[in-house]
């Protein structure tokens, strides 16, 4: 009967709110979840057409929830959480043991909360499916009610998928440097002809400046060495904000550009030129534990280089510092003050020495598993910017996006690509972790 079905639905959900008549726009599901008309992550052009990035087929991070090894590792942590929770109820624990257990309990609590959320959502889904497939009276069909149940089923399924993804993220080993600020360097590379490398380096510099604005980060220029015709040889900036290193650490590497020059014979003959530039990401932790003996430094001063006129100093204000044991060099000529330039160069030198040290540690800890997204070495070609075909391709994941002008603004399009690459790296990191726990 219709009445009995509605009574069962009322016991499951307190109210249903509907807005509008057309489609599902503005409608809320039985659990009060808003049903969106456009899928999440779809970017729209001004005219209304969707711009959907493409990538090679590989699993979503949430798919790892179904992995047998991940399930074993998860159950082990949940049992550990329940065991610690039970032990903390006893008052006869020593103070030292209680502190250790409280610390471990706080570390596992976010994981346990998401796990409980998945269990509850699973029970909700079972109840909806029971109402949908086992009606009180099979002869009594209410199309509107069935539609509501199907929408609720889809909503809960999406919620479970999102929770599973959150759960997998909670399993990931934390990178202690993720919250660090960074020194970002862009360096012009070699080219098959023309000055497209220097121009591309300047465009990349502007792209990361736009991305910093998109993320509300501080963008402090430490060094800027321009080239002819508006190009850029090298620049170093300090980027500060929330989780800067987490977002930018995978941008380090060789970036390739393919384009037809705007002027010259190649432009008239429509010849495509290829050039490269390199991005270097140096983390700057709050506590930068790097001791540098002043005896190991050679400090040189020279006149700053520039385009001429007032842009060139008449005093030796530029500073170059060389760390003799490692050969690592840093220089700065950004201001007319030698003391300020020396201080900036020392900050860059410390970051480079620190980066060199953690790179060696990473190589020592590197396992035999081959990363899907590469070794992340700075020398690898990680991305190609094809201006003639209006396409950006990340070679580590196969992610492809169009509208290169929009991408080079450093907004949402770049953010989407960075998130995709980071997700695949996290996927591999988790697989390595659970395999090591066998």
TrEMBL record:
One of its GO terms (biological process) is mitochondrial translational termination. GO terms for molecular function: translation release factor activity. It holds the Pfam family PCRF. One of its GO terms (cellular component) is mitochondrion. Residues 360-379 are annotated as: Disordered. Gene3D superfamilies: 3.30.160.20, 3.30.70.1660, 6.10.140.1950. Keywords: Protein biosynthesis. Residues 303-319 form the Prokaryotic-type class I peptide chain release factors domain. It comes from the Eukaryota. InterPro entries: PCRF, Pep_chain_release_fac_I, Pep_chain_release_fac_I_sf, Prokaryotic/Mito_RF. Belongs to the prokaryotic/mitochondrial release factor family. PANTHER family: LD18447P, PEPTIDE CHAIN RELEASE FACTOR 1, MITOCHONDRIAL. This is (Atlantic silverside) hypothetical protein. The lineage of its organism: Eukaryota, Metazoa, Chordata, Craniata, Vertebrata.
């Amino acid at each position: 009967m219709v009445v009995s079905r509605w009574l069962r639905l009322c016991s499951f959900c307190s109210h249903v709110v509907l807005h509008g008549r057309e489609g599902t726009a503005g409608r809320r599901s039985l659990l009060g979840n808003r049903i969106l008309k456009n899928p999440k992550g779809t970017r729209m052009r001004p005219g209304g057409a969707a711009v959907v990035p493409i990538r090679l087929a590989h699993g979503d991070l949430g798919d790892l929830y179904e992995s047998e090894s991940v399930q074993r590792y998860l159950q082990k942590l949940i049992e550990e959480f329940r065991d610690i929770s039970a032990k903390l109820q006893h008052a006869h624990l020593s103070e030292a043991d209680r502190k250790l257990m409280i610390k471990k309990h706080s570390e596992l609590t976010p994981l346990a909360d998401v796990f409980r959320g998945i269990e509850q959502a699973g029970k909700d889904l079972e109840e909806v499916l029971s109402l949908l497939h086992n009606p009180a009276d099979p002869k009594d069909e209410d199309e509107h009610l069935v539609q509501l149940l199907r929408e609720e089923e889809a909503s809960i399924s999406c919620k479970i998928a999102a929770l599973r993804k959150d759960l997998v993220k909670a399993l990931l080993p934390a990178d202690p440097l993720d919250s660090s600020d960074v020194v970002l360097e862009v360096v012009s590379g070699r080219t098959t002809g023309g000055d497209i490398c220097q121009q591309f380096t300047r465009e990349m510099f502007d792209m990361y400046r736009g991305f910093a604005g998109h993320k509300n980060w501080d963008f402090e220029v430490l060094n800027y060495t321009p080239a002819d015709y508006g190009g850029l040889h090298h620049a170093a900036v300090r980027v500060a904000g929330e989780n800067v290193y987490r977002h930018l650490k995978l941008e380090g590497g060789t970036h390739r550009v393919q384009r037809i020059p705007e002027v010259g014979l190649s432009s008239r003959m429509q010849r495509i030129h290829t050039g490269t530039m390199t991005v270097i990401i140096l983390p700057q932790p709050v506590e930068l534990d790097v001791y540098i003996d002043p005896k190991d430094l050679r400090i040189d001063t020279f006149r700053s280089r520039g385009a001429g006129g007032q842009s060139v100093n008449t005093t030796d204000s530029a500073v170059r510092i060389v760390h003799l044991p490692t050969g690592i060099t840093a220089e700065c000529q950004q201001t007319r003050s030698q003391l300020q330039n020396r201080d900036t160069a020392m900050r860059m030198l410390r970051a480079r020495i620190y980066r060199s040290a953690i790179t060696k540690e990473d190589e020592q800890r590197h396992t035999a598993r081959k990363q899907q997204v590469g070794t992340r070495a700075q020398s690898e070609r990680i991305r190609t910017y094809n201006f003639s075909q209006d396409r950006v391709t990340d070679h580590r994941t196969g992610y492809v996006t169009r509208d290169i002008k929009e991408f080079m603004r450093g907004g949402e399009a770049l953010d989407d690509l960075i998130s995709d690459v980071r997700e695949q790296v996290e996927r591999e990191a988790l697989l390595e972790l659970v395999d090591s726990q066998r």
